[in-house]
Structure formats: structure tokens, C-alpha cells
Fold these 4 entries.
Entry 1:
Amino acid sequence: MWDFVRKPLADTTGATAIEYGLLIGVIAMTMFFGMSAFVNSLFTMYNTIDANITKAHK
């Protein structure tokens, strides 16, 4: 009677694909947020250099 519940819970086919999918998702999010922080730092550095060059020409 409970076979319809036990069978899907015991089935492990496709588990590796799901784990790889989750791992890729975590890596992609880490890369996205890491690149976002890097771009913000680069933008701040560019603005600082630009302000210093502008100040030096005055």
C-alpha cells in the first residue's frame, strides 16, 4: 500500500544531475556577485583617478 510513497523516495536516479545543477547555480551566483563587487571597485578607482587628474590640471 505504501509502495507509491517508498518507491519515489528510494529512487536515486537523477540525483547527481540535480546536485550538479545546484552546484553550478551556486558557482554562477558567486561569480555574479564577485564580478559585481569587482566592477564597483573598478568604477570607484576610475572616478578617483579622474578626479585627481582633473584636480592636477587646475
Entry 2:
Amino acid sequence: MQGIGGVLFENMIYDEDGNPLATTFLDYLIPTAPEVPDIEVGHIVTLAPGQTGFKGMGEGGAIAAPPCLANAIHDALRHLGVHPTAFPLGPSQLLTMMNEAKQA
């Protein structure tokens, strides 16, 4: 969910003095269960190489989702001249990119 949120929802907006305009989750959008597809978990046990045995556990979802979503959006909209290069890629950003591509 974190990776999906970073691409489609999350966007820090500041005023002219550098103060964040979204200071609560009412203003700062994050994905919730209805916005996320069903996720199938594959569990693989691997030994950690370090002496303590510690390793990460949640990074995979945050790392894989952004390029997958960006490539899917690019594939869907490239015939319109849209080439996303920055996040977020929410509806308003995509509409802006489509309008800019149309005017180019």
C-alpha cells in the first residue's frame, strides 16, 4: 500500500512560507483498502547473512509498486504523448500532462 500511495495519492504541498498545507490525514491522502488490489503473499524463508540475523520485511511492496504503476500509466497514455517522469501520478497530474501533450 505504501508504494501505491507514493505514486497515486501522496503529495506534500506547502504554502509560500514553507508550511505544509496537509497536516492531517483528512488533507493528506493515503490509500485505504478499497483503493488497493487484492494482494497475494508469497512467503519464502531465507537466512540473513549478518551475525544478528536481522533483515527488512516490508520494503518489497514499497519498492516494486512505483515503477510498475508508472510503466502501466506510460503504456496506457504514451499514444497521447504523455511520458510521466515524477510522482505523484494522480488524476489531476495525469490530466495536466494530457492537456500539455495535446498543446505541444
Entry 3:
Amino acid sequence: MNRKHVLIIDGMALLFRSFFATSFTGQFMRNQAGVPTNAIYGFLKHLTLANKQFSPDTILCCWDLGGKTFRHEIFPQYKANRDEPPLELLPQFQLIKHIVQALGIENISHPGYEADDCIGTLSTRLSQDHKINILTGDQDLLQLINQNTYVTLLKKGYGNYQVYNLDLLELEWGITPKQLIDLKALMGDSADNYPGVKGIGKKTAGRLLKDYSSIERIIENIEELPRGVQTKIKNDLEMLHLSRKLATIFCHVPLVFDSSLAPWEPKYDVISRSFRDLGCSHLTSLVR
């Protein structure tokens, strides 16, 4: 089999990051129809720079669809603390998908699942035979790292990355990808609004995983733990298991996508025409 290098884009992470990087100025870089395009501009810049730096054979882009997911069904408070997206960002959600399609890149999503789950499913399906590079700003995706899957975290500015493989994750975090799930289950995630075990922070959670390797082993040996830690875990055992489910990226979404992984070969005449039709001719130069 022809082993390919597949770049999977976390579309939501790139779009949000690009919006907030420039929105504070109040300059939203509108297109001919008056629709803000500042997030789209940053997205395209990140995309083209990553393509030049990593030279993938093909690119896929994953999105949230909005609305409730299976995580809301098992924990209604999931992400309930998040504000609504800014008004200037809302019209850019649909416009960027049209632009990505015009670039010849497949948009991938599925009702009831998050972009993370779609990314996890793609990487699980493809990493046995191909090299996978996930471009994101979301550390949650580090749990997907394996021998053939890398996670590239965006850093400040354009073209600045930290590429994580198994060795670097172990060096910097002191844990394996699977242990990252247990770490979040123990300490919770304020951004996603689930508590984990109350009173257990990152330091204690990390020490527990270093000593016992997994939640199962921690529970098996709970009588060995300091009395206060024992009490906290016993009191929140149900939430610990629930938080673990919430933290785990689901890697079996029934996705339909072009599994041929045809090489990405931008057709600039088509791109130019499509961008013009979308009122975004001012962005065409970013992808040349």
C-alpha cells in the first residue's frame, strides 16, 4: 500500500483561534457583502503555512455541527458555561466551509459528535497504513498520539508549532496518551464544565497516575492512598467514571469520506472563481 501523509485540520480550533487573535482590534476584514472574514483570513494563513511546512499528500478538515452531542445526553451541563459565539463570527462558520470546499479539501462532520470525535475516528482508521498529523490548538487531542499519529499544537503567531509524538508527550507531560484521559477524569476540565474529583488538581492527579498508572489501579489500591485523597475519590467515584467518558474522544463515528485520499492539488482557476463568487476575492492571494 502507498503510505501517505495525511494532515487533519481541526477546523473549529483554527477558526476560533484566528477570530480572537484579531477581533480585539475591531477590524473584521469584511468581504464585498459586508460579511466579516477575519477568522477566515487567519484560518487560510494557518492552513497554507502548515501545508508548506509539513507537505502532506492530502488534507481533511473536521468541524462541529453545533447543537447537542452524546456528551450532553450523559451530562447535560457539558460545556454549559461557554458563551455564545460572537455575532461577527457566526456567518464565518458556513462561509469557511464553502471556502474549504473550493480549495478541494473535504469537510467532515457528523450530527451528535464533535470535531474531536471525527478527528479521532479518521486517525484511528487511517493511522495503521498512513502517517497522520493533526493540526489543532486543543491539547485534548494529544490522547490520539500513537506510533503513526502526531499532534501539532499551534503556538502564538503563524507558522509556530509544537509537534508531539509519543516521546515528547512522555518527556513534557510524564504520561502516555491514554493516561491523559485519566488525568482529565481525575482533575476535571473547567473549559468543558465537568468537575472530575473535587479537590484533586493536576499535581495530585499526575502523582496518582505516576504511582498507579490508571484509574483502575488507583481504585484497586485506594486503601494505600492518603486518607484525604481516599475520601475525595470515594465521594466522587460516580463523577470520576462519568468524567472519564466525557474526556474520551470517541473514535468510531460512522463517517463517510473519500478513503482514496487523493492528493491535494489546488486548482487555482477554480479557487479564484469560487472565491470571487463568495465575495472573497481579497483572500485568493493567501492560497497561492
Entry 4:
Amino acid sequence: MAGNDAASGAGYQDEYWVGAYYLAALFAEAFAEGDIGKVTRVEYQRGPLGDVVVYGDSASGQATLDLQVKRRLQVSAKRGDFPKVVRQMWKTVKDQGFKQGIDKYGLVVMRGSKPLKRLGKLAKRAAACTASGPFWTAIDDLNQGEKDVLKAVMDVSESIDSSNVKDVAWRILGSGMVVLEMDPANAESPHRAYLRSWVDSRVHSPRRTEAIVNTIYEFSSQCDKNRGSVDLAGLERKLLSSGHFLTPSLSAPMVVALESMAPVRSEELAPAILGEEPDRFDMDLRHLTSDNVLTDPDEAVRYIADENSLLRSAVNTQKDRKLILCGRSHIPLAALVGYLVGDRGDVRVLDWHPNAEDQCWNWPENDLCAYPHLIRTETGQRGTMAVRFSLSFWVGEDSSASGLPSTIERTVGILDQVVHLSHPELEHCGTLRARSVRSQLQARAYADEFRNVLDSAVSLTSKIDVFYAGPLSVAFEMGRRVASTMHPPTTVWNYEAGKYTWGICLNPRNGQGVGLPKAVFAPDYKKG
């Protein structure tokens, strides 16, 4: 149980929420914190550390993650729970059933600290050494804070085996220790968001998701008190017996809402989908943003596009279901979602219209209304290539001595060819304050013209960099037009604070062919 370093009431709730976090991962058959593969079972009060023991299906076979949960923990060999925790770690490592290199053990801490971060760093460093000697010969590289943490571990190790202190300390640190900082008890925390998204990946309904999350938490508290052991079948039986439906209604459309800059509110969305009662799949990435700046593009791309991502699961297991794509997000993320949705048939896109009198998601015109065709201009013939795509703003208005937009040159270097697709009204004013795209048909048509550019470039370039300014609806549709194998690697860039800082390559190449989408960065990019 959570000990002296945590207030008892809060400590118990922390254990329940950490257990609920792993139960939700079990429910979705997902990967969770701890690096032991897909979660297959969760147990309570079982191991030496033992608050929560998680089983996973790793590449090397069944793995276990033995965790003690603390609200906070002081790293000290003389005070608090730290000495007891270190001894329990040693007991875990010495257990004859412990699988070196596969099983993990350690801490979940709600309130992290610099010493705990240093402890995690030391654990990774020790794990990288195949023997005790190389670890100790390199300790001069440690800073003073890291040396203080190491001394605390050594002091406890001396109380375990005074004749073999260094080997014991190295084995405690390097045999699979993890130090996880998470607070799923906080409703606004990233890990609570993951918990909700895992549940939502099964039921695709915000109302049902919240109800199931509450039941999972209550079930977790019961299991903690009863030393429970739960696999997927047992969890599903519990949820079904509590009156929950665990599958979505496949006849209802599914709204895919991408939220990295602002939420997509159901009450605002409702007028645009009258007559339909859709389920929702929310990709809420706002915990990765600060003042609308995405602080960790790598993590955002992994969340959306990994082979086992919730979006892939939702899209690939329900291929006949109607999708409605919408969002208030960064352009490259929308293109990525569109790319993963692909060319499946029944897909609608919606746009948020903040300048409308009553801010709404409704298209101002229907698909029978005429729309202006894009202007296409080209310079150069063969080699490195950029596509400037200007709908709401003029992309690359500033020019360098070479005649190319300097903001683009700073990102990808000198280009051999540039194709510019632009809204005709931008030729006169540079910025469109009115809606540049006024119907779903227009969004699709503009994306088709983008596809024509990609098709014509297949034999002319080895990669394509896209610089787009316009509604998110066209960004979704752009991504859907990128063919993974036919088109060269295509990167959609993000513009902020006067420059292009990061982008997403939708279809990168690797030694085996087309790889997973990945974040790419400008030379002057600074993380966070």
C-alpha cells in the first residue's frame, strides 16, 4: 500500500486510479506505460512492490511490471519510504521467477521530483551496461544531483549486503527498474485522457465512455481491497453485469474529432449533423500543446499513427462505417488523420467557421453551388520540390534573392521546382477573411487538384514538401489523396510564429518499403 510518503486516503485513491489506467489499457488491448507490450492482466497487492502488478504480451513473451504507487517520495536512505522501496526492488530482482531483460519493477509517483527523474535516468544508464564494472567506471560523468541519488541507493544496498555494495546497487538499478510519473486521478491529466481514449476506442460514445470509466475505477478499488486478478474476459463480464454495452452501434456514423488546439463541442457540432446520432472518437492532444504550440510532435504522431494506435483500430475494424472528420487542430495532424483514413468511401469533412455570425460547423453552401477553380503556377522542372498551397493566406509571401519564399528555403533548402496552387481571390488581397472553402464538394475538388500535382511529380522528384494555408477540411482531404507507395515521401509542414518549424512525413521510406508516418523538424527547431 502507499506508505508514509503519501496521505493514506489520497494514497488509496491513487492506487485505484493507477489500477484503472491499466484496466482501461487491458480493455482496449493497448500498450501502456512500462514497456511490457499489450496489457493482458492486472493484479493487485500481489508482488514484493505489489500495489499493482501488470502483465503484458511483449516481443520476448509474457512480461510483468511490479509497481508501488506513491503520491510523492523523498529519495533518502535515512528518511521516509525510500529504503523500504529499494529493498522490495531487490527482493523482486532476486525472486526465482523474475525474468531478467523482460520483467520490470519500480514506482508510479503522482508528484515527480528532480531526484526521482535522476533515479530513472540512473536506471536506464545501469540497464545499458552488461556488467557492473562499466557502470561504475563511468560515474565521474554524473552531475552532483545524480551522484547524491546514487549514494542513497548505495547506502540502502550496503544494508542489504555490505560485502557487495556496488554489485547490489547496479542490479537494483539496472535489472528493469522504471520510475513512472503519472496522475490518472487528476481528471485533466494526460494519463486520464489516455484512460478515456482507450475506453472510447471500444464504445465510441462520450456518454458511455464516462460511465464505463467510472465503473472501471470502482472495480479497481474492489480489486485492490480483495487482492484481485483481472484478465480481459473478467473485466468484460464485470462491465456487462453493470449494464454497459461494450460495442458501438455500427449503423451510426462515427465522428472523428481531432483536438490539439481547442475542443470540438458536441452542442456546437449538432446542427451540422441534424438527423444523425453519431458516436464519437476523440483524439484530444491538448495536453501536448502550450498556447496552441505543439510541444511534442513526435508523441502526437505516435499517438495517432503507431501500428497499434486507437485511430487505426477504430478505422480498420469498422471499414463500412460512415466517418465524419472534424477538428480544431494543427494542419499536419489533420493531414495525418486523412492519410490514415485513406480512400474509403463514406467520409464527410466539416469545418469550424469562427467568423460566422453564430460560429458553427455548418457549410455555408451546398454541393450544387459553383466555386472558383485554383490557379496553378510552376517554376523549375526536376529535382527537389515544394508545393505551396494558398487558400486562406498567401504561402511564402516573403521572397529571398533566389525568388523563392525565404521561410520555405530556411526549412528545406534551395528547391529545384515549386508548384503553387492558390485561390484566385488571393491574387489581389493576400488574405481571405471570408470562408475560402464554402462546401464539402469544394474541399474535395481542391484536394483533387493537389492530388494531380502529386501524380505529375512521381517521376520528377524523390520527395515533396507541402506548405499549406487553409481550412482544416482540405487538410483532411489532402492527406486522403496521398498514396503510400505511389507518391514520393510527402511532408506537410506546420507554420507558426513566422516560420515552418516541424512537419509530418506521411509516407517515409525505409529498408522494407513504406514506413510509419514520422515527425520531421526544421534545422532551427527547438522542442517545447
